[in-house]
UniProtKB/TrEMBL annotation:
It comes from the Eukaryota. InterPro entries: Leu-rich_rpt, Leu-rich_rpt_typical-subtyp, LRR_dom_sf, SLRP. The keyword Metal-binding does not apply. This is Insulin-like growth factor-binding protein complex acid labile subunit. Keywords: Leucine-rich repeat, Repeat.
Amino acid sequence: SEILSTYTLQQLKSLHIDSATEHKFLECIPKFSNLLELKITNTYLPQISDTLILGASKLEHITFSNNSLSLIPSTFFENCTNLSVLDLSTNKLQTVENSWFISLQKLVQLSLERNQITNFPSDVLISLKSLQILNLAENYIKIIPPNFVLPSLKSMNVSWNQLTELNQFVQNNPHLHDFDISGNKLTECFISKNLQTLYASENQITVLKFDTFGKFRISTLFIGNNQIRNGTELLKLSKLNFLDISQNDISVDFTQLYKLKNLISFNVSSIPSIKLPADPTVPSNLLELDLSNNGLSFISGQFIKSFPRLTDLYLHGNKLTKNSIEEIHKDLQHLVNLSSD
């Protein structure tokens, strides 16, 4: 309190309190009427007073992360009408209350990752018409209701939860561009025409589903460590820059790879049934190719020449001889990084 009182109350715009052991200083926060940013982090604070930010009505950014916070008063944020960023990550919240958000019409980014949230009702964020970025990663959520719709939502992270279905949710949120669903229990993955980035690794996905009409915009797709066997339809994703299909028992037709004209990074590591063609294929624009951990004993020089622009090649975890690796290096003039055993 004595330290904070040395500042001119009307001038302080940003306040960051980290690793505090005394909570008396919290009493001063309502006096900072022009405060725009408040961060309280790494402080044991299981619950907070409903008057903590009562006088700081101009706040635009609040971070209460890593505080063991388990309880937030229902009207705590009611005066925060200018708030655009709210970070409640790494706490012990078990529920998310609709009442927290009623006044937050300008909220753009909400972070709730690494809590203990189990339930996420469809109407819990109904007030957040401006919300663009939502992070719910590393909780215990089993269901995101299909009718959970946020009109401005562009980026969402629900990785490392316990979700089993998200197809209808994706279809009902057409503005969603960036989606991380890694580490769940999904068996299907829906790729909408508006998605630009999709991280779906480490699920139980066997089926990929695609929008029926329209051109796909997706540029980054990570679907490694699933149970996908057929990847033929991936060739329709012509704007892909980064593709990871590693750790699937999937058929890979390198003779068709040229159709992905924009692809610069391709991870096909740890695919038991992979077969590389011996003959040359139509040249590809790939810059990075990961063929590691496939048990390959031979790679045709003609095949390697199909990637004239390659700068990074990963071959560790195979059975290639030293001589064959040296020959590969000679065939790739632009190679910068060659990883091998």
